[in-house]
Design goal:
- By secondary structure, the protein is α/β, with parallel strands linked by helices.
- The protein has 3 domains: 3-113 and 187-198 and 278-284, 3-Layer(aba) Sandwich (Rossmann fold), CATH 3.40.50; 120-179, Histone, subunit A (Orthogonal Bundle), CATH 1.10.20; 199-267, Helix Hairpins, CATH 1.10.287.
- The protein has 12 helices and 6 strands.
- Strands 3-2-4-1-5-6 form a 6-stranded parallel beta sheet, sandwiched between helices.
- The model has no long low-confidence stretch (mean pLDDT 91).
Length: 286
């Protein structure tokens, strides 16, 4: 039986090393399921696997798109499922997928409903509001229109908030209501393994990793991306806070502290997202 093993868990928990060990065991490549590591211009701030890790096992969907491309979970579903079918047909019995993007993982496991195409005029208006009012105003509107989406999506991610709000405003329906169609059937078995650590240990790892990113050149990477700050891909923890620092809205120590705090909040939301999925087998890392 063809099986897909999905290694998931919050940011900084240790998915990369765990999945590499598993991939080597099964002779599998790793299919990345990370909505930010897919962009080639973002390396340090997205914790892309190291050169040694990439050399140990072949990875797919790592830095193979540009931040200038419009990339969606629906597109990922099509490309990832096609790749999985190809790899299984080539003789793999077990394949390893790893990542922390819950919406992308759901797309592979269950398929996405047919969301309406983006209304570019409405999106431009919402992007302008994001720039002038900040994400909080959009979050509050989404909370009013669709509380369920507000509780489950990454509301620190302006792009996700805009997309959910856009669908609500375009259709008069809740964004969350589009997730009710029957699940798509896949030609392979899926097993989801969630790896976990005690909350305090996870938060300490997050804080240390942010400091390591700064040491490795996160400021220079973010400064080089400053002209692209309005792109959807740039609405990402680790970059937004430094853009505010470059604008003089905060000092560097405060910006780093905010990156740590917002990353911890993101990890908490990831865990909340998967808390509703009873099919996940949770394995603590010791």
């Amino acid at each position: 039986m063809r099986k897909l093993l999905i290694i998931l868990g919050p940011t900084a928990v240790g998915k990369t090393d765990y999945s590499i060990d598993l991939a080597l065991k099964y002779g599998s490549p790793i299919i990345s399921c990370d909505s930010r590591q897919i962009y080639r211009e973002m390396s340090i701030g997205t914790a892309v696997p190291s050169a040694e890790q990439l050399a140990a096992v072949k990875h797919y969907f790592i830095q193979d798109h540009s931040i200038h491309d419009i990339y969606t979970a629906g597109k990922y579903e099509l490309e990832a499922v096609a790749l999985l079918e190809k790899l299984f047909d080539e003789g793999h019995e077990t394949l390893v997928m790893a990542g922390g993007s819950g919406f992308y993982i759901d797309a592979v496991c269950n398929g996405l409903d047919d969301f309406p195409p983006a209304d570019q005029e409405l999106r431009a208006s919402l992007m302008e509001r994001l720039h002038t009012e900040g994400v909080e105003s959009l979050r509050l509107e989404l909370k009013f229109l669709d509380p369920e989406s507000y509780e489950t999506i990454d509301i620190a991610n302006g792009q996700r908030v805009i997309r959910a709000l856009e669908v609500c405003l375009m259709t008069g329906r809740k964004f969350s209501s589009f997730k009710t169609n029957p699940l798509k059937k896949r030609s392979f078995e899926i097993e989801k393994i969630g790896i976990s650590r005690p909350r305090e240990e996870l938060y300490e790892r997050i804080d240390r990793r942010v400091l390591q990113m700064v040491d490795e050149g996160l400021l220079e990477e973010a400064r080089g991306l400053l002209p692209e700050r309005e792109l959807p891909a740039m609405q990402t923890v680790g970059y937004r806070e430094l853009f505010d620092y470059f604008d003089g809205k905060t000092d560097l120590d405060k910006a780093v502290e905010l990156i740590q705090r917002n990353t911890r909040h993101y990890a908490k939301r990831q865990l909340s997202w998967w808390g509703r999925d009873k099919s996940i087998i949770w394995k603590p890392i010791v």
